[in-house]
Amino acid sequence: MKAVTWQGKRDVRVEDVPDPRIEQPTDAVIRITSSGLCGSDLHLYEVLTPFMTPGDILGHEPMGIVEEVGAEVTNLRPGDRVVVPFQIACGHCWMCGTGLYTQCETTQVSGEGMGAALFGYTRLYGAVPGAQAEYLRVPQAQFGPMKVPEGPPDDRFVYLSDVLPTAWQAVQYAAVPAGGTVAVLGLGPIGDMACRIALHQGAERVFGVDLVPERLRRMRERGVETFDLRDFDSEKELVEAIRDKTAGRGPDAVIDAVGTEAHGSGTAKLAQTAAGVLPRAIGSKIAERFSVDRLAALYTAIDLVRRGGTISLSGVYGGQADPMPLLTMFDKQIQLRMGQANVRRWTDDIIPLLTEADPLGVDTFATHHVPLSDAPHAYDMFQKKQEGAVKVLMKP
After folding, report:
1. What is the C-alpha to C-alpha distance for residues 152 and 119, in angstroms, rounded to an integer?
2. d(Cα 368, Cα 352) in Å, to the nearest integer?
3. Beta-ladder partners of 228
4. How far apart are CA 95 and CA 90, in angstroms?
5. Inter-axis angle of helices 163-174 and 189-200, nearest 10
6. Residues 91, 85: contact at Cβ < 8 Å?
7. What are φ and ψ of residue 65, in 5° steps?
8. How many whole angstroms separate alpha carbon 209 and alpha carbon 304?
9. What is the H or E stretch that residue 330 is in?
10. Going by DSSP bridges, is the β-strand pair 205-210/225-228 parallel, antiparallel, or unpaired?
11. CA angle 266, 268, 269 (to 5 degrees)
């Protein structure tokens, strides 16, 4: 089959790889009909290269048609149309029982000290072959895949794999009070959808911050009050501008949907780049233990949120030696929640919104639909924020 493989920093290729097959009785094999390109994939493309191996298959936002199931998968049958969550969870362990599917004890990558295995996302998360491919082996298929109806286009449902539950959890963790205010830093796919969900759930005002014109325009059209980073000479000016909209206090909540790709610290970027070009055994240790993430967005969130407010962190940060302004956080009584989205915890709340009325605008959410063969260009375009790319879907 054809699949998108990682070959090095900013080097992805579409190659012929072996077809997946049933390996465990809880497996299924699906034929991919759509697969998303995620901002998290850009971390592998750019800064998490020490944890990658040439030939790794990328992608973690799939939907498709069931081709084959293992003996213990009784909830699916060939021909079913399904969406597959980006994390691999069993549904019956203690952690899954609490709704923490990203901490699944059956699939935890304990050798790396990490949580549940993820599709297409480095050796830290199990080095499981990903979903930017023609076919996908789905472990724990007795729980993970969600059946969706025939009829509507893939765009209606594919975001259940990641974008929708990640944005939904970001808003839930933000704990925006009824009639309250929330600022969203970063208007890529997750930040964009988080704005839509916050408005749908009753936030009085949503402030969106970015520097890409297409992203800002999309949000203005949906009633978000936007702030263009290019209009400000400093983070302090931006913070003051948003505070002026909130009686001088700052928003009740801030969602950081940027993570380690934040527009900021050149020194931190240099450290990450250095780790990426060192021999893998050395570079991974530096990246894992000593790199300082580009924390501009998180620092902005801490400064911006009102006293007693909440920061919801959905952007991915990778280092373990990141300096945090704990005195400020303690003094402001900031609450901080974070983590990979527990997909199946939220999907029952989201699915009723995927109707013909389409209140969240999923049918027109993607800016680009490309064939799998165009993956190298899609990655380059998305990483450089060119051609108005906000969300890219690939079709084998």
Report:
1. 25
2. 25
3. 210
4. 10
5. 60
6. no
7. -115, 130
8. 12
9. helix 326-331
10. parallel
11. 65
Structural tokens at position 110:
């304990």
List, as one string, the DSSP characters of 87-134: B---SSSHHHHTT-GGG-TTT--GGGT--S-BBT-TGGGT-B--SSBS
Q: Please state the pTM of the whole predicted model.
A: 0.91
Greater model confidence, 295 or 184: 184
Find tokens 């069993």 and name the residue.
90
Q: Which of 116, 117, 119, 150 is nearest to 132 (CA)?
A: 119
pLDDT tens digits, 252-278: 999 999 865 534 444 444 444 444 444
Average pLDDT over residues 339-363: 96
Cα 109 from Cα 295, distance rounded (Å): 26
CA neighbor of 161 nearest in space, from 350, 383, 396, 361: 350
Higher-pLDDT residue of 46, 354: 354
290 is written with which tokens?
């000593």
Among 249, 203, 243, 247, residue whose Cα is nearest residue 227: 243
Can you tell me the distance from the alpha carbon of 126 to that of 286, in angstroms, rounded to the nearest whole number?
20
Among positive and negative, which fits the CA dihedral 109, 346, 194, 242?
Answer: negative
Count of helix runs (H) and strand runs (E) in the chain: 12, 15
The 10s digit of each residue's pLDDT in 232-247 is: 999 999 999 999 999 9
CB under 8 Å to 74, separation ≥6 — which residues? 142
- Cα distances (angstroms) measured from residue 257 to each of 6, 45, 196, 197, 251: 24, 18, 14, 14, 16
Q: Answer yes or no: are the C-beta atoms of 375 and 17 closer than 8 Å.
A: no
